[in-house]
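Re: magnesium ion structure - here you go.
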Amino acid sequence: RMPEFVQIKEVGPRDGLQNEQQRISTADKVHWINTLSESGVKEVEYSSFVHPKWVPALSDAHEVGKRIMRIPGVRYSALVPNMKGLELALEAGIDGASVFMSASETHNRKNINKSIEETYPVLQPVVTEAKQAGKHVTGYVSTVFDCPYEGKISPDQVLRVCEQLLEFGVDDISLGDTIGTAVPSQVDQLLVKVLDRFPSDKMIMHFHDTRGMAIANIMRSMEHGITRFDSAVGGLGGCPYASGAAGNVATNDVLYLLNGLGIKTGMNEQKLQEAALYIQNKLGKTLPSKSLAYVASQ
Ligand code: HMG
Ligand code: MG
């Protein structure tokens, strides 16, 4: 029982670039995001309005937001950690705001400098204000399977965080395998519980591909009825506050899988390829996507 249509959110400009040492100029980011926009993807997470000291690679979020073209039908979203980030994001222009926290107490503290309990009162007004401004709001929950500091995270802990964010009014939740360690049996354990509580169209899966398990995990997630995934072109990225974590699953690899399975995405493989080769060239290194490497070698 595979889905007919899958919705992909391109997170390369945010999750991808936030962990790259090589700086990309604002003009190059704008050109690249515009190319990604033309690929038929439904949502592009274009940057992050976090503290520039914490994520220097995205310190030009405001300018990027002002300069990218906006294609009707594409949602342009950004990561926002607090009210200050939301104000800046609204000024720069967003259709969607993504708040974020972790299911793991220690990762939450390392990533956003607060305990889980201290994070809720920071995020609640962000969700409320963003909804009042007419924006789509996604809640990211990180380390839903394994935490680099605490090890296994229980599905019940993940459920508690999801419940709270949904109560605040987020439209949907993206469940993050932040360090890319999960295998399909862990996907089963979590999704059985999650989908018992929440509708599948509210849940997005966000896999990093550290151990090469992301495609298997996506396949398993679709078997549970999940139809929305986050991915980064070429497979770039990682989390700066989860050491050793590799990039997101490559949009190119996901698209190859979905096309092969006959699942519609509305995406154009060639445009995506163009965007992948562009950023690969700017970064001056080969990106991990195997589909990209294969097509580039032809
Ligand atoms: P803090 O230092 O605790 O913040 O950082 P604060 O509220 O105490 O403020 C300290 C100073 O920062 C103040 O300035 C604020 O104005 C300023 P001062 O008065 O000292 O001059 N400030 C800001 N400046 C610009 N933009 C802002 C902002 N907020 C405060 N938004 C904070 C708390 C959350 C801001 C910080 O910890 C932070 O920026 N963390 C971001 C970490 C991050 O970006 N991690 C990566 C993204 S998450 C991820 O990758 C996982 C995901 O992909 C899913 C998955 O894979 O699992 C989403
Ligand atoms: Mg991530």
